[in-house]
Design brief:
The chain is an alpha+beta fold. The protein folds into 3 domains: about 5-50, no CATH class; about 65-275, outer membrane lipoprotein receptor (LolB), chain A (Clam), CATH 2.50.20.10; about 295-400, Protein Transport Mog1p, Chain A (3-Layer(aba) Sandwich), CATH 3.40.1000. The chain contains 11 helices and 23 strands. The chain has helices spanning about 20-25, 50-55, 55-65, 65-70, 85-90, 115-125, 185-195, 275, 295-300, 340-355, 395-400; strands at about 5, 10-15, 15-20, 100-105, 125-135, 140-145, 150-155, 160-165, 170-175, 205-210, 215-220, 230-240, 245-250, 260-265, 285-290, 310, 315, 325-330, 335-340, 360, 365-370, 370-380, 385-390. The strands form 4 sheets. It has a 12-stranded mixed sheet with strand order 10-11-12-13-14-4-5-6-7-8-9-15, with helices on both faces. A 6-stranded antiparallel sheet has the order 18-19-23-22-21-20, with helices on both faces. A hairpin with a 5-residue loop joins strand 12 (about 230-240) and strand 13. It is globular and about 55 Å long. About 40% of the residues are buried. The model is unreliable at about 1-20, about 20-50, about 70-75 and about 110-120 (pLDDT under 50). Keywords: Lipoprotein, Membrane, Transmembrane, Transmembrane helix. This is Outer membrane lipoprotein-sorting protein. It comes from Blastococcus mobilis.
C-alpha cells in the first residue's frame, strides 16, 4: 500500500506511522518483519502522543518475548550429523543471507561506568533486535525498545548508527579492537565466533529443539583450558543452512545461562541492498564516534611490551595492535590486557570494588561476574591496566603477577 504523507519526517504505511528513513529503508514483510499472522498494527492519529505512539512497539516486544516457549513446545526432529560436521556448517554460514527477529537475555550485572554503560546494558538486560544480513560487511541491526529504535548499518569500512528520536547519525570506523555491539549478540554471529577455534575433542551432540519454528540441532562446546571460567556453550544450529539459531553460555557450576540469545523469527532470503544501505538524511546531526580509545592509550606504553604468554594462555597475533595491548587464549577462553585511560580506570576500580566477592590485594582489585572476570592492575609510575575475559580469578591473579614493568604515560 502506498505511504500517506503525515509530515516532513513521517509517513503512514499499511496503517502505521513510521519515520521516513524506516519507510524508505524497505521495512516490508519481505525485509524481515514477523509474518502477518503475528504482526501488531494500529492507525495512529496526528495527535497521538509519544508514549502512546510507541505502545504498539511495546505490544510487539511483549508478543515476541512469549514466542520461544510456544514454539519450543513443538517436537524437534534430530539428524545424525557428527559434531565436527555441524561445526563446519556453522563456520560456513556467514554468507547465508537472512532477516528476522532475535532476542538476547544477559544475566551479567557488570560494573557500570559512564564510558561503558552501553556495554553493561547489553550483557545485563533483555535486548530485542531486528536484523537484515546480506553478508559480514553488509548488514543492519535495529535494537527495538518500547520508546524507539536505534539502527546500526555496517558496510565495508565502518558503521552508521541512526537514532531516529534525536535525528542523529554517528559514523564509526572499524578497528583491531572494538567494544561489543548488538551485532555481536546475534546467535548467528556469536555462535560462529565461539565455535571458530573449538577442537573436535571439545565438541559433542546434545539432541535437538525447536527454535524460531525450525529444527535446531544441538552442539555442545566444553572448554578444556584450565583458565576458562566457562563450563559449556550450547549452540542450536539450523540443519539446512548451518545458521546458529540459539546460543547459551554457562559459567562454572551455573544452572542458568549467563547469556542466552536466540532467533524468534528467521527468513532465509536475501534482503534488498536498500534495506542495509544508509546515508544521513537531510537535516540530521552527523558526528564521529571515537569511542573509548584503548589503542591510543596502548601506543604510549614503552619498555619491553607484553609477554608471549600470560596465565598459561598464548598471545594471539593481531595485526594493528600496539605492543602495550594484548589478547590471549583461544575460542571461548580469552583474556584481554588493556592500558586504560585514567578516568575509565578510576570509575571501573570503584565499581569493581563494590561488586559481590571482589578481591582487593597488592595485585589490584578483581571480581567475577558470571563467567566474566575483571581486574584493575596498578603498575609503577601510575600506569593502570584492565584485565578482562572469560577466565577465573586465579587466572587473573596469575596474569597480573606475570606482567612486566611497563612504562608510559598514565
Amino acid at each position: 500500500m502506498p505511504g500517506r504523507e503525515t509530515g516532513a519526517d513521517e509517513v503512514v504505511v499499511d496503517g502505521r506511522r513510521r519515520d521516513r528513513h524506516t519507510a524508505e529503508g524497505g521495512r516490508s514483510d519481505a525485509g524481515g518483519c514477523v509474518p502477518s499472522t503475528r504482526t501488531v498494527s494500529a492507525v495512529v492519529s496526528p495527535g497521538f502522543g509519544a508514549r502512546r505512539r510507541w505502545a504498539v512497539v511495546a505490544g510487539l516486544v511483549a508478543l515476541l518475548a512469549g514466542l520461544p516457549s510456544l514454539i519450543g513446545a513443538i517436537p524437534a526432529s534430530d539428524r545424525d550429523v557428527p559434531a565436527a560436521d555441524l561445526r563446519s556448517a556453522v563456520l560456513a554460514s556467514d554468507m547465508v543471507a537472512f532477516s528476522g527477529y532475535a532476542e538476547s537475555a544477559g544475566g551479567l550485572a557488570l560494573p557500570v561506568t559512564d564510558q561503558l554503560a552501553s556495554v553493561a546494558d547489553l550483557f545485563s538486560d533483555r535486548t530485542l533486535m531486528r536484523v537484515w544480513w546480506r553478508g559480514p560487511a553488509d548488514n543492519r541491526v535495529d535494537v527495538v525498545t518500547p520508546t524507539g529504535e536505534i539502527s546500526t548499518h555496517r558496510d565495508a569500512t565502518g558503521t552508521w548508527t541512526w537514532e531516529y528520536e534525536s535525528a542523529t547519525a554517528t559514523r564509526g570506523a572499524l578497528g583491531p579492537l572494538e567494544l561489543p555491539a548488538p551485532l555481536d549478540l546475534l546467535p548467528s554471529a556469536l555462535g560462529r565466533r565461539l565455535l571458530s577455534e573449538a577442537a573436535d575433542g571439545e565438541l559433542s551432540r546434545i539432541g535437538a529443539r525447536r527454535v524460531a519454528g525450525r529444527d535446531g540441532l544441538g552442539l555442545r562446546l566444553s572448554p578444556v583450558d584450565q583458565a576458562s571460567s566457562v563450563s559449556r556453550v550450547d549452540v542450536w544450529v539450523d540443519g539446512d543452512s548451518g545458521v546458529p539459531l540459539q546460543v547459551q553460555v554457562y559459567g562454572e557450576d551455573a544452572r542458568r545461562p549467563a547469556l542466552d540469545t536466540r532467533f524468534l523469527d528467521l527468513e532465509l532470503a536475501a534482503p534488498g541492498p536498500e534495506v542495509t544501505a544508509f546515508s544521513p538524511p537531510a537535516g540530521a546531526v552527523v558526528r564521529e564516534d571515537r569511542g573509548v580509545d584503548l589503542v591510543e592509550a596502548a601506543q604510549q606504553v614503552t619498555g619491553p611490551g607484553l609477554p608471549l604468554t600470560l596465565a598459561g594462555l598464548d598471545r594471539r597475533p593481531m595485526e594493528g595492535l600496539p605492543r602495550g595491548l594484548g589478547v590471549y587464549g583461544r575460542g571461548v577462553t580469552l583474556l584481554a590486557v588493556v592500558p586504560a585511560p585514567g578516568r575509565l580506570t578510576e570509575e571501573l576500580r570503584r565499581a569493581l570494588g563494590a561488586s559481590p566477592g571482589a578481591v582487593v590485594d597488592e595485585l589490584g582489585v578483581r571480581a567475577s561476574i558470571g563467567p566474566l572476570g575483571l581486574m584493575v592492575v596498578d603498575r609503577p609510575g601510575g600506569r593502570a591496566y584492565v584485565l578482562t575475559g572469560s577466565v577465573t580469578l586465579d587466572a587473573l591473579a596469575a596474569a597480573a603477577a606475570e606482567m612486566p614493568e611497563l612504562g608510559g604515560r598514565p
